From TrEMBL:
It comes from Sulfitobacter marinus. Keywords: DNA-binding, Transcription, Transcription regulation. Residues 4-61 form the HTH lysR-type domain. GO terms for molecular function: DNA binding; DNA-binding transcription factor activity. InterPro entries: LTTR, LysR_HTH_N, LysR_subst-bd, WH-like_DNA-bd_sf, WH_DNA-bd_sf. Pfam families: HTH_1, LysR_substrate. The lineage of its organism: Bacteria, Pseudomonadati, Pseudomonadota, Alphaproteobacteria, Rhodobacterales. This is Transcriptional regulator, LysR family. Belongs to the LysR transcriptional regulatory family. Gene3D superfamilies: Periplasmic binding protein-like II (3.40.190.10), Winged helix-like DNA-binding domain superfamily/Winged helix DNA-binding domain (1.10.10.10).
Length: 282
């Protein structure tokens, strides 16, 4: 197995960029003979002629152009890896706030990917209601927050729109009962829209569970004592979408928004934001 040397590739790139061994040697702070020897070893290793030395200046052959493209990518990857693993700016803690109901399935995948790329940075995950997260963000307690809301505030970006759906126990009948038994979060941002939709269709309802605990809501709904609403695609495996065939009102879509503190932006902050963005826009 033949292996390419990073230092040699740097010398090759320098020669290609400067158009000569002498100028490349000065740029690299090496002797001309050292650079020439590196180029010779590279050509021997690949068994290719990479440089056209027939003119007054050195030019790349067709093979040399191909090697140059690979060399640039290899150097960039090498420098990125070294930088991320050793640069002290890639250390510390970044605080991410996400509403309870959209943590799964996206956020665990984001955390795993981020840790693989920034192993020395710890993500402190805060899970709460959108209203609480926005208050924390305004106070500077969170670096990034994801929210679920009907609109978008200044400084944020909408990642996607998702419909709200009715959720119940598998094979359950709670959705058929009148008044309709509801289990909703106390500070849930789309709760007013749910109530409004029911009132517009003159469906009587009874809020039997009003809590800040997702577990309490899930337990109640799992027991087929009430129904709940969630963003499509975030329902847990032990609950299911209610197939009500129009017996319940359609619900409005919700924005999944991302807010980031502009004064804290750096490569770590931006990389985490990009991973979140990519995951929710799939």
């Amino acid at each position: 197995m033949r292996n390419l040397d990073i230092t040699t590739l740097r010398s090759f790139i320098a020669v290609a960029d400067t158009g000569g061994v002498t100028r490349a040697a000065g740029f690299l702070h090496l002797t001309q003979s050292a650079v020439s020897m590196q180029l010779k070893r590279l050509e021997e290793l690949l068994d290719l002629v990479l440089l056209d030395r027939s003119g007054r200046t050195i030019a790349l052959t067709e093979s040399g152009e191909q090697v140059l493209a690979y060399a640039r990518r290899m150097i960039a990857l090498n420098d990125e890896m070294i930088g991320r693993l050793t640069d002290q700016s890639h250390e510390g803690v970044i605080t991410l706030g996400v509403p309870h109901d959209i943590v799964y399935p996206a956020i665990p995948q984001v955390l795993k990917q981020f840790h693989s790329e920034f192993p020395r940075v710890r993500v402190q995950l805060e899970s709460s209601y959108t209203r609480t997260l926005k208050e924390s963000f305004a106070k500077g307690a969170c670096d990034l927050i994801v929210t679920t809301e009907g609109g978008l505030d200044s400084g944020g970006e909408t990642l996607c729109q998702k419909p709200l759906i009715w959720i119940g126990a598998p094979g359950g009948a709670a959705w058929r009962q009148r008044p309709l038994k509801l289990a909703l979060g106390r500070f849930c941002t789309f709760r007013p829209k749910v109530i409004e939709a029911l009132d517009q269709q003159n469906i009587k309802w009874d809020l039997i569970v009003e809590t800040e605990s997702d577990r309490t809501i899930e337990a109640t709904v799992s027991a087929d004592l009430a129904v709940h609403t969630m963003i499509d695609g975030t329902e847990p495996p032990h609950l299911e979408r209610v197939q009500h065939h129009g017996a319940l009102p359609s619900l409005p879509s919700q924005n999944i928004n991302l807010y980031g503190a502009s004064e804290k932006r750096n490569i770590v902050h931006d990389s985490l934001a990009t991973m979140i963005r990519d995951m929710f826009q799939r």
